[in-house]
Structure formats: structure tokens, C-alpha cells
Amino acid sequence: MDEKDKIEVKPLETVEPIGKRVLICKDEDKKQTKGGIQLPDNIEIPTITGRVVAVSAEIENAPDIPLRRYDKVLFNPKGAIPVDFEGDNRLFVVELENVVAVFRKS
Questions:
Q1: CA 18 to CA 66: how far, in whole Å?
Q2: Which of 65, 46, 47, 64 is nearest to 55 (CA)?
Q3: Which CATH number is 54's domain given?
Q4: Is residue 8 included in any domain, yes or no?
Q5: pLDDT per residue over 64-104, tens digit each?
Q6: What is the torsion angle, in degrees rounded to the nearest 10, for the CA atoms of residue 36, residue 44, residue 92 and residue 105?
Q7: From CA 1, how far away is CA 16, in angstroms rounded?
Q8: I want to staple 81 with a disulfide (CB 3.0 to 4.6 A). Which of 44, 86, 90, 93 is the partner?
């Protein structure tokens, strides 16, 4: 194989959601309640929180959609698509309708 036949593979650097989707970094799973009760590892929580890492151009240009980068959100993980960079994956592409709330300071 010649030098010119070798293909250089570069690592993936960014993920940009397309359509009405956002990229969310899921918060760490809670292992214990505030009262000190230990939660089982297999507990299923219907909604989880995270931070918006990136928004699609469609959402960024829509003034009626109140989501911006770094917002803390509550989202339904059922339709979330994991972005598998590493074994300890916490990145998910989430459709806009699965983002159910945005946390705001008053």
C-alpha cells in the first residue's frame, strides 16, 4: 500500500443537531435522595435533567422557541438518541417535543 493510498481518519469533533433537535448532556444519575434513601441502579425515571450543549440552526433561528445553549432542561429520555463517543455516554440528541421544561432563575 502506497502512502497516497492511506486514508487519514480524524476523530469526530462536533455534533450539530438537525431539524427541531437539541444536543443534551444528561446530568449524573442520582444514587440517593435528599433524605438519604439509597436508590436502586435499575430505577426507571420517566424524565431526566441535563444541559443543552448545542441547538440546531432551525431552533436557534426560531424566536418562539425558548431554548438556548447551556439551558438546564427536563426531558423525556424515551426518544433520546445516544451519541456514543465513549463508554460513559451522557450525550443525547433529543427532539424538541421531548424537552418538557426549561429551568429559569427569576
A1: 17
A2: 65
A3: 2.30.33.40
A4: no
A5: 998 999 999 999 988 899 887 665 668 999 999 999 999 99
A6: -50
A7: 35
A8: 93
